[in-house]
Design a protein that fits this description.
Layout: E1 8-9, H1 11-18, H2 22-30, E2 37-39, E3 42-46, H3 47-56, H4 58-63
Antiparallel strand pairs: 1-3, 2-3
Helix pairs in contact: 1-2
């Protein structure tokens, strides 16, 4: 999965690869559901953190109809 992707992502690449909006991607990062590192104003997301998030949420993904299911708070349920 994501074989041709770089090892470190930014929020825009996270949103693109997960098929979600930029606001939802920021919500995942800000809620610490996906581990990230902040360097100055840049948010860096290790690809391994995304894979961990997807593995932990595999049940929710299939049960809730996909990653586009975002709760009212903007954080994945």
């Amino acid at each position: 999965m994501f074989i041709n992707s770089p090892d470190v992502w930014n929020v825009q690449l996270l949103a693109k690869n997960l098929g979600i909006g930029k606001n939802a991607a920021y919500a995942l990062v800000n809620s610490k559901r996906i581990h990230s590192i902040k360097l100055g104003r840049r948010i860096l997301i290790p690809k391994s953190s995304v894979l961990d998030f997807l593995a932990e949420n595999e049940y929710n993904y299939t049960r809730n109809g996909g990653l586009s299911s975002v709760s009212q708070k903007g954080v994945m349920a």
